[in-house]
Amino acid sequence: MKLEGKVWSFGDNIDTDAIIAARYLSTSDPVKLAEHLMEDIRPDFPGLVEKGDILIGGQNFGCGSSREHAPLAIKGAGVSCVIARSFARIFYRNAINIGLPILECSDDLSHLQPGQDRLQVDFEEGIITHLETGDIYKAAPFPPFMQEIINLGGLVGYVKNRIKG
Amino acid sequence: MNNGGSTMVEKILAANSGKSKVNPGELINARVDLALGNDITAPVAIKEFERFGLDEVFDRDKIVLVPDHFTPNKDIASAEQARDVRDFAKKYNIKHYYEIGRMGVEHALLPEQGLIHPGMIIIGADSHTCTYGALGAFSTGVGSTDLAAAIAIGEAWFKVPATIRFEYSGTIPPFVSGKDLILYTIGQIGVEGARYRAMEFTGEAIDKLSMDGRLTMANMAVEAGGKCGYVQPDQTTFQYLDGRVKNDYTSVYSDEDAYYEKVYQFDVSSLEPQIAFPPSPDNVYPVSAAAGTTIDQVVIGSCTNGRIEDLRAAASVIKGKKVHPGVRLLVIPATQLIYRQALEEGVLAAFIDAEAAVSTPTCGPCLGGHMGILARGEKALATTNRNFVGRMGHPESEVYLCGPAVAAASAVAGEIVHPEEVK
Known about the structure:
Chain A is of the alpha/beta class. Chain A contains 7 helices and 7 strands. In chain B, 61% of the residues are buried.
């Protein structure tokens, strides 16, 4: 799978309360949740983010609450993938389970211009390419077990497969 | 890789995945003994579960549903989410569904009801599910889809975590509690200091720490990024379990030659009560550094500090005094039993006489749900677990975290103080 999109950058330790505040958790509709994506730390963000965009995070992206509404809100906004230096563990498994593509990349991406720079992400190879400069960043590939979940469209597909078997 | 002994968590994971030994980093499928959801996370899990097209759940006795976050229902949308959970519980005849009036904040409720014992694997669609490590279990927070899968097949996938050992020596000073130990620890290692790791709490200070204090510590392991936090079973554990847990269980212990990725040693003898300044649980300083910070609201409660010992500690500071006129003090016993016990002991009377508001059990303000939302610019001091931007209300409000004694003393003083200063 390859995808392209322009980037939006966030810092270290972006918590799930920042991604989607608890006051919006009385729905789990991804599109409704997306209307408030990152609202408390960046009020104009829901109006800026467009289908296909890529979110860039620092260390420990998605820490805090286990709310699956956080990756759902990101998905609902049409974000194509999240690249971070590291992910908090519950966010990491939630993203895989619901089929939101994520990648861990230890290269420094903080210089990328939000809303301008465009990246191409090659998931099989774990290669991220800056579409203008041609710079290449390496991401960690998924272990085969997780790749299987991703290939089956998330955990629901994986479990359905198990039940059938 | 490691060919030596195993930690408690490695042994529990191995035993439940049909392996003789597991190693950090290994991906496994394990049986779960209990799967937990609440009124925010279970509705999403229920929708996913229905996609499997199954007629029944994997085991109706091993699923726990607790409507505690936006309950008693705060608005129509929340009422409908709570109704979906109730309907699911009825349809599948779920044994452990706790209705309003019988419920409590989930992580205080499950141990109290005797649902947790050493050696178990518990997953919950709530990040503070890590609490049960205090009873020698492996428990961790997951998302709603994980919960749906566990409800369907009774299994979950795990990456075996490496373990970090935290040794606490010395005698815990007055007014210092499990909350101060864990805040101090998070302050030392940071919010990702134990990311993906198991946190083993040990040492003479832990040996003497009460079960309520241990539950508080394990509860906040996730605030350091931890997958779980645990204390190995001892007399304190067995005393707590005695009379609560009906089934037989086997306690599991770390081997002498178990592999620890890191070992931290903290002497707590001269530890001051701790405060986490906004907007992060690792922004921790001794209470003296926060002295004089004026506050608008104080919250005593939550899965972190809403247990009877917490309420007693706060009441003993506040008894015979009045809450400062500029402060709203909210006290939320975490379960109905704790509420009842606090009532019988005169603890609630001490709060009410001090002009505090005492609420029925709910997570409520901890996550900015209801029952005490902050306006723009307001500051709260809370015994809860997170102080992220907007956590308790307006994005421009602020939350400071502390233990129960500091919370009560500061409610009286109108500003953050050491409990010794309120006489």
